[in-house]
Design brief:
Oligomer: heterodimer
CATH superfamily of chain A: STAS domain
Order of helices and strands of chain A: EEEHEHEHHE
Strand order of the largest sheet of chain B: 1-5-6-4-3-2
Largest sheet of chain A: 6 strands, mixed
CATH architecture of chain A: 2-Layer Sandwich
Strand content of chain A: 25-35%
Helix content of chain A: 25-40%
Number of helices of chain B: 5
CATH topology of chain A: Transcription Regulator spoIIAA
Number of domains of chain A: 1
Radius of gyration of chain A: 13 Å
CATH class of chain A: Alpha Beta
Distance between the termini of chain A: 35 Å
Shape of chain B: globular
Order of helices and strands of chain B: EEHHEEHHHEE
Largest interface: A-B, 26 and 34 residues
Number of domains of chain B: 1
CATH topology of chain B: Heat Shock Protein 90
Number of strands of chain A: 6
Chain lengths: 118, 186
């Protein structure tokens, strides 16, 4: 599988398939589902490699536009098909959009572990 | 002229405001997309200077809303015109008010107004989750449809629109979109 990080001037997507971890950082303002597809593929590939649990570390993700929220929401909804996968999302209270918007993901997947660091 | 939702023509008690104008035809959309982020970030930093104390909440909210408004304005703009896209941000005593103006093709007006009617008449939280499920079921949709709903649900914003015919350009209509963000939600 492709476990290469995706690094641009604006954002970094760093998968660690052995740990079932993807770290997203920077500002994600891509234009629609097509541009988010490479990131969605990294997330799905990491779950495939480590189906027991997946952790998305967003604690350095300063900005996410609504197309990015959509990408994350679709990833979470895909997990309904594989209830054996424990999904954890790490957020930070230091980044205000996360306290506002990450709770919506919890409603999509009630078993989601959402940890927002104080 | 047609108005939907909470749209105010006169913003009388605003003492501070910022307006940015873009000539949208100068470069292709894809090349300019990154400028939305630069503009939204600038507006956020600028507005934060008027607040004392921790300004992270204000910056974050202004950045998100301005970015979504600019993305919408750029995406639905009618590039056969040369009317500038504008985004304005007003600091009032009890709220921040964003307004974008952009020209769209007449053929988009009815569809857009239908969407606005749905946004204004339904329960925003239910609409949000319906839209997420819809996007999941239809993965090829180019747009998420979540921007306005996120503003309403997660930022307690109120929305309004004004559609104005352009006398000199009958094929286009100017859409002004207003987002009001109460200071108490920041």
């Amino acid at each position: 599988m492709d476990a290469e990080p995706l690094i641009t001037e604006d954002f970094q997507i760093c998968p660690d398939p052995e740990a079932g971890l993807v770290t997203l950082s920077g500002s994600l303002r891509l234009a629609g589902a097509e541009e988010y597809a490479p990131i969605a593929e990294i997330l799905e590939a990491t779950v495939t490699a480590h189906p027991e649990k997946i952790t998305l570390d967003l604690r350095q993700l300063e900005f996410l536009n609504s197309s990015g929220i959509n990408m994350l929401s679709k990833f979470i909804l895909n997990r309904r098909q594989s209830p054996q996968t424990q999904v954890t999302i790490l957020g930070s209270v230091e980044i205000p959009w996360q306290s506002r918007s990450l709770k919506n993901l919890q409603r999509l997947l009630p078993t989601l572990h959402l940890h927002i660091d104080e | 002229m047609q108005v939907f939702g909470d749209y105010q023509d006169q913003l009388t008690d605003g003492t501070e405001y910022l307006v940015l104008c873009f000539s949208p035809s100068a470069r292709p959309l894809k090349e300019r997309w990154r400028n939305n982020g630069l503009s939204a970030g600038f507006m956020a930093d600028y507005m934060a200077t008027f607040f004392t104390g921790d300004s992270r909440g204000i910056k974050s909210a202004v950045n998100f809303i301005a970015n979504e408004l600019l993305e919408n304005a750029m995406k639905y703009y009618d590039y056969s015109t040369d009317i500038p896209i504008t985004i304005s941000l007003y600091l009032l005593s009890d709220k921040l008010v964003f307004r974008t103006t952009n020209a769209i093709n007449r053929s988009y007006v009815q569809g857009y107004q239908d969407l606005i009617q749905v946004l204004l008449s339904g329960d925003p939280e239910e609409l949000y989750f319906q839209q997420v499920e819809h996007n999941h079921a239809q993965p090829d949709l180019p747009q998420s449809g979540l921007g306005f709903l996120t503003m309403i649900n997660d930022y307690q914003a109120t929305l309004g629109w004004r559609f104005m015919p352009l006398l000199m350009q009958p094929q286009q209509v100017e859409v002004a979109t207003m987002v009001q963000l109460p200071s108490g939600s920041l």
